Amino acid sequence: MDVKYDLTSYVRVLKMASTPSWEEFSQVALIAGAGVVLVGILGFAIFAVMELLPGGV
After folding, report:
1. How large is the average pLDDT for residues 44-49?
2. Residue 23 located in a structural domain
3. Do 30 and 36 contact (CB within 8 A), yes or no?
4. pTM above 0.90?
5. Residue 51 in contact with residue 57, Cβ under 8 Å?
């Protein structure tokens, strides 16, 4: 394990990274929020089906 080479590559990546613009950040947040809502709806639908079936939890 070459620590000096690893640190150099990490520093290079950090120098290339930049802060996203507000438009880019809001778009990513919107997509992530939509994913959370979709997973929640799917979970609720599974729960509702399990409650309607005979012998549900």
Report:
1. 94
2. yes
3. no
4. no
5. yes
Dihedrals phi, psi of 2, to nearest 5 degrees? -95, 100
More confident residue, 39 or 9: 39
Interval 12-38: pLDDT, tens: 888 898 899 999 999 999 999 999 999
What sections of the chain are H helices per DSSP? Answer: 3-16, 22-52
Domain that holds residue 43: 19-57
- CA angle, residues 30, 20, 6, in degrees to nearest 5: 120
Structural domains of the chain, count? 1
| Residue 10 located in a structural domain | no
